[in-house]
Automatic annotation (TrEMBL):
Region (Disordered): 52-498
Composition-biased stretches (Basic and acidic residues): 80-90, 119-358, 466-498
Signal peptide start and end residues: none
Biased composition (Low complexity): 388-412, 421-434, 447-462
Record's protein name: Uncharacterized protein
Length: 628
């Protein structure tokens, strides 16, 4: 007979239940020898058994972990859930360890119990086999009943446990639902707060946008106010400039009148100053070389500065162009009006002086007739010869006084002499026929040309009319030449004073050399983009605009004594050379080398230069030359 020990382990009970099955047709020795080899210990995880409670708990679903997006708003709930989850994990680990220990100890305990019982019952086995078998059967029945009772009890306990577990799961689900509702409520609250914050942000952005619009509006208003203020300042400056130009023009006229008045006083002083000037020139020649080198360096620096200024001026040229054209037009109109008035006044003065000259000529002819008549009477008799001689002396004295009166009356207006344009046929042989003639004291007295009379009273041969006229014309030409030189000097001084200071000889020479070098570079195409300020204008003072170019300044430039004249050309030839240089056809070839912004202005200035040179040449080509 073979006995199999079946050990069953319940996870809810600590009691180990062993069931012994009797198998017939086995010898007893097999029971003793192979009992332990046929013991079968049921694995609590084998089929037919329920898993332990901790295994059920392990499969249980825990509450869902919160998302990372809600971690900031649900920090306290997350911490509580984390702590509860840790406690559950620790409890599961402890229960699992207890089950493992119980599973390891259960088979060993059953084996030890069976061995003890078998050792006790083995000696009596042979003698009491039948009793033993009945006892075993009885025991088996009892054990079976007991097992069934325990099984029922276990089933009840298991049912109760499952009910409790279901109730616990329901409570847990309810709690999880409540927590989910709380989380949903919290999420809704967070969403509401988020929407509120978004609304606040939108309101803040709207307020910021309104403030930016207000700031832009204020800035535009400020810019408009600034532009209006600048326009008012510009208008005020224009009025001040016009007023200043009018005052400057008035001052120049007064200065010119004063200079003309002083010119007569300086005539005598100039002779004395000429000697001192020669000494100064000799001293100045020594300094010319040093000054020339220094001025050359300054000119190089000035050329670089002019280039820099040219860049700045080019930027301002377009803005100033319209304003300058308008001002130039106004100045041109004022200049034309002034020239017209001066021309009319000059014509009136010329007509007045011509009438005076005709009157003086009539007086002179009347005196000349009287002299001829007395001369003829002197040939009739010796007595009448003596009377004629005394009459001749009185007539010459009268002629001398008349000529002196004519000279004084003519000297009162010396500025009109070089502008006289009457034909040569209307001029007389007397000194009074030339307006602007400024004779020296007693230069027109006929008695100076009359040879002294002999003591015997014999009359000398009088000077012929042609000789007398020739001498008077020579004196008139000498006076006019001196007056022309004086006018040129005054014009040069005026131009130099307008430039700010009187330029020295070496500075004027250096200016002419610079202009000649610039003309050569322009002709050869060595320079490009020439601007107004860098152009070699034929003026001592560099013009700022077209209105600054006038015939007087060009005259002072071309007829300057320091003007380069290596070939010994006359003034007329120098003027013609300048006209050829500034001729529109030749000048137009240089325009591609001129800056585009200044081409129109430079072309207009070149036209003014040509007109000034033509006027100057016309004066030289007049009936009696430039100065009669």
């Amino acid at each position: 007979m073979h006995i199999v020990l079946d050990i069953h382990y319940s996870p809810l009970l600590t009691l180990k239940q062993c069931r012994i099955h009797t198998i017939r047709r086995r010898p007893p020795r097999i029971f003793n020898t192979s009992l332990f080899h046929h013991l079968k210990c049921r694995n609590p995880y084998s089929s037919g058994g329920d898993p332990p409670a901790w295994k059920l708990w392990e499969n249980e679903k825990l509450p869902a972990e919160p998302n990372d997006d809600d971690s900031e708003s649900l920090s306290e709930d997350d911490e509580a859930i984390r702590r509860s989850r840790d406690r559950v994990a620790i409890a599961r680990e402890g229960m699992a360890q207890d089950d493992v220990h119980q599973q390891e100890a259960a088979p060993n305990q059953a084996i030890r119990t069976t061995k003890r019982s078998l050792r006790r019952e083995a000696p009596r086995e042979e003698t009491t086999q039948r009793e033993e078998m009945s006892w075993w059967e009885e025991e088996h029945r009892k054990e079976e009943v007991k097992r069934k009772e325990e099984e029922n009890k276990r089933n009840e306990l298991e049912t109760r446990r499952k009910a409790e577990e279901a109730q616990r799961k329901a409570e847990e689900a309810k709690r999880m639902e409540e927590e989910a509702e709380k989380k949903a409520e919290e999420a809704r609250r967070i969403e509401a707060e988020t929407e509120k914050r978004a609304a606040m942000l939108r309101e803040r952005e709207e307020a910021l946008r309104q403030r930016e619009q207000e700031l832009e509006k204020r800035e535009r208003e400020a810019q408009e106010a600034e532009l209006k203020r600048k326009e008012e300042d510009l208008k005020r400056r224009e009025e001040e400039i016009m007023k200043k130009e009018a005052e400057d023009l008035k001052r120049r006229r007064e200065e010119l009148e004063r200079k003309e008045a002083e010119a007569r006083q300086k005539a005598e002083q100039e002779r004395l100053e000429a000697e001192a000037a020669k000494a100064r020139e000799r001293e100045q020649i020594r300094k010319d070389k040093e000054l020339a080198e220094r001025m050359q360096r300054e000119q190089n620096e000035e050329s670089w500065k002019e280039k820099e200024r040219a860049n700045k001026i080019r930027l301002e040229a377009e803005r100033r162009k319209a304003e300058e054209n308008r001002k130039a037009e106004e100045r041109r109109k004022a200049e034309d009006k002034r020239k017209l008035e001066e021309f009319q006044a000059e014509q009136a003065r010329a007509r007045r002086k011509e009438e005076e000259a005709k009157q003086q000529q009539a007086n002179f002819q009347r005196r000349e007739e009287e002299i001829r008549r007395k001369r003829q009477d002197s040939w009739t008799s010796e007595d009448t010869k003596a009377r004629s001689a005394s009459g001749w002396g009185s007539s010459t004295s009268a002629s001398s006084s008349s000529s002196a009166w004519s000279s004084s009356s003519t000297a009162s207006n010396p500025t009109s002499g070089w502008k006289q344009t009457t034909p040569s046929s209307n001029r007389t042989s007397t000194s009074s026929s030339t307006p602007g003639y400024k004779p020296r004291s007693g230069s027109s007295s006929y008695s100076q040309h009359q040879p002294p009379s002999t003591p015997s009273g014999t009359p000398q041969t009088p000077v012929s009319d042609a000789e007398w006229r020739r001498r008077q014309e020579e004196q008139a030409r000498a006076q006019q030449e001196k007056f022309r030189a004086e006018q040129e000097r005054l014009e040069r001084e005026r131009q130099a004073k307008e430039a700010g200071r009187i330029m020295s000889k070496e500075e004027v020479v250096r200016l002419f050399q610079s202009h000649e070098s610039q003309w050569q570079k322009l002709t050869k195409g060595e320079i490009e983009n020439v601007i107004w300020d860098a152009f070699p204008w034929p003026m001592i003072k560099k013009p700022k605009d077209v209105a600054d170019i006038n015939a007087g300044a060009i005259h002072a430039y071309v007829l300057n004594p320091h003007f380069p004249n290596d070939n010994g050309k006359g003034d007329k030839d120098k003027i013609k050379e300048q006209i050829r240089r500034w001729h529109p056809d030749r000048f137009e070839r240089l325009m591609p080398r001129v800056a585009e912004d200044d081409r129109d202005r430079i072309r207009e200035g070149a036209g003014e230069v040509v007109r000034g040179l033509n006027d100057l040449l016309t004066k030289f080509n007049g009936p009696a030359g430039m100065f009669g």
